[in-house]
Amino acid sequence: MTTTDNRHNPDTETASKTMHAIVHRSFGPPQASLTYQVVDKPSISDDEVLVRVRAAGVAIGDWLTVMGLPYVARPQYGLLAPKHPIPGYEMAGIVETVGAGVTGLQPGDEVFGWGNATLAEYVAIPASQLTTKPSNLTLEQSAAVPISGLAALEGLRDSGGLRPGQRVLITGASGAVGTFAVQIAKALGAEVTGVVSTGNVEMVRSIGADDVIDYTTAAITDSGSRYDLILDLAGNRSLGELRRALTPSGTLVIVGGSGGRWLMGFGRTVRAGALSPFVRQRLRPFISKPTLENLETLRGLIESGQVTPVIDKTFPLRDTATALDYLASRHTRGKSVITI
To answer: Is the whole model's pTM more than 0.85, yes or no?
Structure first.
C-alpha cells in the first residue's frame, strides 16, 4: 500500500512565500547600490493581480532612477533613500492569482503592463495597468513595450497632435522610445525622418523611416527641410536649433534631457514652456501618463504588424546592474530586457 507523506516541510513553505528580486537600498552606481537577493513575495489587494514575471524591460530611465538623477526628481524617487526598494517599471508574465474585485483576467493569462517593482520573480500590479500580451510577440518582446511604447504614442499623438500627412522629425530615433516612435508615426500616416549616429542609419531605415539624418555629419537644419512636429528624445540640442527646424506653426515635444546632475535638461524644458505662449510654434514639455486604453492601442498596432519592438540585448535578473551600466552608455538600439 502506498502512503502520502503529509508532514510539515518548512523549506517548501518558506520557498512558496519568498522570491528572488533586485533590491535597491541606496542611490548610486548600479554595481554598488543593487543586490540580487531573496525577499518576501508580494501580497495583493482586491483590485490587484499577482504576476509571475517572465521578463522586464529596462531603459535609461531605470539607470537614472537607480542613480537618483536628476536631483530635481528626488521627490519622485525618494529624497534620501529609494521610495521603492525593488526597481523596475514594466514587465510581461503569467497571471498567478487575481484579487477578489478583478474581472477580465484569470490565472494562466499571459499579460503585459506597467507598475512598480517589476525586477523580481513576482509583482503585484493593479488590474487597470495590465492587459493580455500581443498574440504575435513572446513574453520577452512584450516586456519591452509598455513604458517606451506608451511614451512614443502619447508624445506623438496626444502631446504632438500628429495628423496624417505631416512631416515628423524624431531625434534619438534608434533608442528605446525612438524605435517605437518611428513605427508609430508611420502607422499614423506621417512622413518620418529619424536622427541617429552612423551605425544606426540602416536600422532606423529598416523600421520605416522615410529619411535619416546622421548627426555626426549633418545638423538637423542643414537640408533646409522644416517639420510639422519634432519629437526630441536626444535632449542635447538647443531650443533655437530645434525651432529653426520647425515650420512656423509646428510643434516641438521635448521628451528627453541631458546635462548636469541637478536638472539634466529640465531647465530647457522649463524655458520651452515659458516661451511657448509668445510664439506661433507650440513648445511642449512631456510627462507620460500611461493608460490601459493606450496600451491596448499599442497591442493593436503590434498585432496588425505595424509596430515591432526592437530588442538590443537580454540579461538574466541577477545581472541587472550590468544591464543598467550598459544602458548608461546611451548608445543602445531599442530596448534591453531582463529575463526572469
So the answer is: yes
Instruction: Compute φ and ψ for 101, nearest 5 degrees.
Output: -95, 5
Q: Do domains 10-145+309-339 and 148-285 have the same CATH topology?
A: no
Q: How far apart are CA 24 and CA 20, in angstroms?
A: 13
pLDDT tens column, 135-147: 999 999 999 999 9
Beta-carbon contacts of residue 333 (< 8 Å; ≥ 6 apart): 174, 175, 179, 200, 203, 310, 312
Reported confidence tier of residue 66, pLDDT bands at 50, 70, 90: very high
SS3 helix, strand, coil % of the chain, rounded to 5? 30, 25, 40
Strands 282-285 and 246-254, bridge-based pairing: parallel
Per CATH, is 10-145+309-339 categorized as 3.90.180.10?
A: yes
Average pLDDT over residues 311-321: 98
Asked if residues 230 and 253 have their Cβ atoms less than 8 Å apart, the reply is yes
In this structure, the number of other CB atoms found within 10 A of the CB of residue 3 comes to 5
Contacts of 45 (CB under 8 A, 6+ apart): 99, 124
Place of cell 517605437: 180
Q: Fold for domain 148-285? A: Rossmann fold (3.40.50)
Domain ranges of the chain: 10-145+309-339, 148-285
Radius of gyration of the chain (CA): 21
Write out the DSSP string of 233-253: -S--S-HHHHHHTEEEEEEEE
